[in-house]
Design goal:
alpha+beta; two-stranded antiparallel sheet
């Protein structure tokens, strides 16, 4: 019986120690890293698809009048590479309509997630989008 207790003690001790560490690791999953703290920043999975979506979102009235502009968005890319729609903010826009169009586009973009030492993490991203009039 004493041999069983001795064999069981390391397993119980490991579980007790792992409990607080596991909670710390889970809490880290909720952390949003600034781009400066990630080892590998998020990257668009398809720049071609992004360009197509941006072009399709160009408000027709602005496009027909030859009005282009720039929009700067800030948002969070989660650890799966998806944009958190609730996090999307227009930081700056030369035209309000372009800012609204860009917000809708960015929610549809897919990224390879940011990584810290090989682990995918939530990352805050600032992305400029330029609408060029033809």
């Amino acid at each position: 019986m004493s041999t069983f207790r001795l064999a069981l003690f390391p397993a119980v001790a490991a579980l007790l120690l792992a409990g607080p560490l596991a909670r710390t690791a889970a809490a880290q999953d909720d952390k949003v890293y600034p781009i400066s703290e990630v080892t590998n920043p998020p990257k668009l999975t398809s720049s071609t698809n992004a360009a197509r979506l941006i072009q399709e979102s160009y408000p027709a009235d602005l496009k027909s009048r030859g009005v282009g502009g720039m929009v700067e968005l800030q948002f969070v890319v989660d650890s799966k590479g998806k944009v958190d729609p609730a996090s999307v903010e227009v930081v700056d826009a030369t035209q309000t309509a372009l800012g609204e169009a860009a917000k809708k586009v960015v929610a549809k973009l897919d990224f390879n997630p940011g990584k810290v030492n090989g682990a995918a993490v939530k990352t805050k991203v600032v992305l400029p989008i330029i609408y060029k009039a033809n």
